[in-house]
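[job 0412] stage=fold_complex status=start
inputs:
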Amino acid sequence: DAGITQSPRYKITETGRQVTLMCHQTWSHSYMFWYRQDLGHGLRLIYYSAAADITDKGEVPDGYVVSRSKTENFPLTLESATRSQTSVYFCASSLDRGQRGGYTFGSGTRLTVV
Amino acid sequence: GESVGLHLPTLSVQEGDNSIINCAYSNSASDYFIWYKQESGKGPQFIIDIRSNMDKRQGQRVTVLLNKTVKHLSLQIAATQPGDSAVYFCAENRDNQGGKLIFGQGTELSVKP
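[job 0412] stage=fold_complex status=done
writing structure:
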């Protein structure tokens, strides 16, 4: 969807390195979310944000850091990447708490940690 | 525990047949459900939603049924087409938990020509 973009599309990094995944939306949606998708686990929520400067943990936040200084951006940082963080990461946004039409997802970032 | 889950991981249907994908949930307080379609290499895409004050909702070729008594919902796709091949997720929006979406593991639908 052109309104929410993730970068990079693919990333290979080494264990122990810091890596940041970017998410940008053009709708001024209040809510933004980061999910990871792994075989056998479906989509699991890492962090979410209700507005700029407001973030909260999801199901699997360990090893990740987020910030939201601007409404349109919600970067996800892996401070010291581990192999278990190899996954596909999806960013999503929502105008409200998702009660009207759920979320709109980006195309994902496939991250491989070697 | 609270969860949203799917009964079958894979479903194979013949082109033109109807497809039914099932989903069970355990949180009786859940009041809003969404079905997503995810094609290979893409993010999940909204298909249809339903609130707990309804038991049926129809869209274009898709129908969602909700049975609150047994905490079950299903997605029916009429006249399934090759373009319907994807993974389908049901998701529960827990407004009382900050509006987070909780996803089931997904059912892969394969349409045979």
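[job 0412] summary: The domain at 4-112 of chain B is CATH 2.60.40.10 (Immunoglobulin-like).
[job 0412] exit 0
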